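Changelog entry: the Molybdopterin oxidoreductase family protein record was regenerated in this release. Current contents:
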Amino acid sequence: SRLAPASTVTSICGYCATGCQLKLHLNEAGEAINLSPQANYPVNLGMACPKGWQALDPLAAPDRGTTPLLRDPATGERRPIDWATAVDLFTSKLQGIQDKHGRDSAAFLSTGQIPFEEMAFLGLLWKSGMGFLHGDANTRQCMATAVTAYKQSFGFDAPPYTYADFEESDVIVLSGSNLCIAHPILWQRIMRNRRMPEIIVIDPRSTETAQAATVHVPLKPKGDLALYYALAHCIIRDGRIDPEAITHTEGYDEFAAFVRDYTPESVAERTGLEPATVEKLARLVSEPGKRVSWWWTMGINQSYEGVRAAQAMINLALITGNIGKPGTGANSITGQCNAMGSRLFSNTTSLVGGHDFANPEHRQKVADGLGIPAERIPSEASLAYDEILHAAEQGKIKALWIVATNPFHSWIDSGRLAALRDKLEFLVVQDMYHSTESAAVADLYLPAAGWGEKSGCLINSERRIATIKPVRKAPGQTLTDFRIFRLLAEAWGCGEMFADWTDPESAFRILRDLTKDRPCDITAIKGYEQLDQAGGIQWPFPRSGDSQSPLSSPESSPIDKVANHSLFTRHSALGTPSERRLFADGHYYTPSGRARILYSAPDELPEAPDAKFPFMLLTGRGTSSQWHTQTRTSKSDILQKLYPAEAYIEIHPRDAKRLGVLNNQTVTIRSRRGEMKASAYLAPTVQPGQLFLPMHYPEVNKLTHPSFDPHSRQPNYKASAVTISPS
Ligand code: SF4
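Regenerated structure tokens:
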């Protein structure tokens, strides 16, 4: 029939880190005309959320860039230029800045939204090709805390779980995670759990997830660290630890002494919870014979003490023996589609391939793999995102190259970026759209292809590597990021370094080989075709692991095994490479092989409510139909219909009554940094004294307080003091 597709290809969704596989249906010309979720993919099992279903819509938006644009600094007007002029301008400006001010005078800000082959190209081009020092990714805004927590505790950034653990747990603890709307397919995985699990949600808000849970623990904002220490206190006091599991840890005795003071009574003020609630929770998460899994997202990560809070959950999993077994784990759920790829390959915090910049052997190994002298790999760590922006405010960083991210909307205390813009000598923004808040103020805008217009690999939350495919032609003169990096490398004079990076798959093979002997070793992956046939492959997948691999099994093809979910589940219990969890052998990546139990006393809130700003502002995802700054999702009429176009704020009815605020009335929210208007939504989803704003509206971060976790430098988006009044 006329409506039947000519062919179909598979591709991983390019929004969140769940990593659903989609089937893209193509016409005779090879262009996608429609899509549907893949039924036999081991992640989404035939499901997709609204964003995935509408993933093709943003490609056809009228504000797609079609040519490079040059902005007149005097008038702000932009005019189209050709690629040769754009590349010339890029290299001459940046070379001039480097010659005059040194290699720490410019920085890139990249993303968790592009394939890791492109991330690695950018990071290596910038640091080893062009010779600059600083670059960070927007994963600093979502995953830096989990990265640091895992590195410190386990010796490597290694989320230990597999999604089958959702279905195999007896007790599922979700902390600071509105899974129902932020990762709706993962919530469906919980719904498939046949063990009648206890689902415990620890969250100040009565979120969609809290309302669907069996237990909601409505603690005070940022009371989590004290709560986890009180849980550890009760568990140790009652002898509900796992003595064998503790032999695989360091620091247990000191930790036991530390939590002795954290009685349920002592944390009541900080957590807002009755001691009996804490006691009951402690029993639930340490029930002998029960499989307990701990899961967290941004409510933990985006905090001024997120690393210690994440580690407090890791500690609870370690001392109760809930790690390395089916249905267990201390599990960070990633945000962006390729945040996990960024963690291994962006060459920002860690040297590409899971290495350390400070380690001379690592630098030599990576240099050998890339065919360059080791001296071209910096030994110093880059400044973190906030430090880069601070250096730009001080005039030390003169130029920024922003790739596929939108900090003028998303960065904390975003009002400061307007002033920072004027300090920069040169701002380049490379993005699908010329209309983002960041692209609109760039000196030079470079039009980039998006998801659906290029190939490469993404890594999802459970460490599964899988491919995306081009299914549409990018508009006008738009190029893939990969192609832009190649052009710039040639123009800079370092093209030879990337002579073998002819396309994303050749880059994949080079990067794959760099992972050899690291915990993330994927040297047994032959190429994209194998990834497609296997239904994605979770790292590690080293060459020596081939004998265990279902891919080498003669009885059934990998896709058959993927299709048979019960077989998959059995494999996961065995820890085979097809669906594998880490630490089943009790061995961690630290020098001693034991996990470190790390802790420190909770700190005071950086900005507590007071008489002038009496409300605590919480921010977060508002819906499953919108993504971050709405750069792409605002282009879909269907997704827009599922969510209010104008900002709204949740306020408790009791507070609203006291302030004379009516439902749907326009209110003004003010912080010490800025103000915005929103429509009041009266709902007991927030507690009295608290307000909730979805992060998708551009004004929200004018309010947020710029404080950061000292270990991870992740911004603390979810605790700012504000006031609210009728407009
Ligand atoms: Fe799946 Fe996430 Fe894409 Fe939705 S946005 S379809 S949950 S990968």
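The domain at 7-55 is CATH 2.20.25.90 (N-terminal domain of TfIIb).
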